[in-house]
Specification:
single chain, BirA Bifunctional Protein, domain 2, 2 domains, 7-stranded mixed β-sheet, two-stranded antiparallel ribbon, 9 strands, tRNA binding, Phe_tRNA_ligase_alpha1_bac
Amino acid sequence: MKEKLEQIKEEAFKQIAESKELSKLNDVRVNFLGKKGELTAVLKGMKNVSAEDRPKIGQLVNETRSIIETKLEETKKALEEAELELRLKRETIDVTLPASKPITGHAHPNQVVLEEVEDIFRSMGYEVCDGPEIEYDYYNFEALNIPANHPAKDEQDTFYINKDILLRTQTSPVQVRVMEKGKLPIKMIAPGRVFRSDEVDATHSPSFHQIEGMVIDKGITFADLKGTLLEFSKRLFGPETKIKLRPHHFPFTEPSAEVDVSCFKCGGKGCRFCKGEGWIEILGCGMVHPRVLEMSGIDPEEYSGFAFGVGLERITLLKYEIDDMRLLYENDIRFLNQF
């Protein structure tokens, strides 16, 4: 029995010496000192030992257990110290190195221009309103004096979900919803995302943004519209900016006009930016059609108003001299970091 215990101790020492990790060392502890370990098996065999020899054998087993436990603890402590030293080396911080600068984001060029436009109109007393992007055909077309047979309602131009519901093609439905509330007077702009069935190219996208504005009150005239747009243009493009209104047709306004601004690069003299014309088209506008007022419950004999709409991407491209609309959506960090 004494020889067997000596063999167990030597085998335990050998396995302890070969253990380079704490997990492996724990396996050795279980193999020799656990409930099913080598020493436990020896104790279970004590029933076959004579009564007078049992105390001596028991003492030898306990001594062997104590020696193995001591060796295990010494090795465990050594492994823990080595592991700590390795971790400290790996996690050492050189406080003399320059600190790494966190990469901070910034506003997208579209967002920069949107906030600038909102600030301009807020300073003139306008409220910023929004509405659903999934809209009823009634609000998107019919309430804006666009009949059922109008080309804009063609499925080639509009994303219809069913015959009554679609993805809005403009933010004008927000104007109708505000008019229906009947709280007059109204001074509002409605920025938001809109959808049209366009092929993606340098100047078109199936999803883009519009900013539409409207004023409804007593005694509103075309002169108020012109003055508002002139002030807006000067604030956005510079104090020397001039505007020019050209007759046009929109179903929801009468009379209607397209608005050009004098080229803010050449001052209207003609350059590459304005294609030599001295003017740049930026938006459409007009006096709110009396029928649109009537359909929203407003008496056109007592109230009048004007409305206008501008593409956010259009003025972003102009302001920053970007020649391809797709650059705004490709998320190329090299491009976006310029703004």
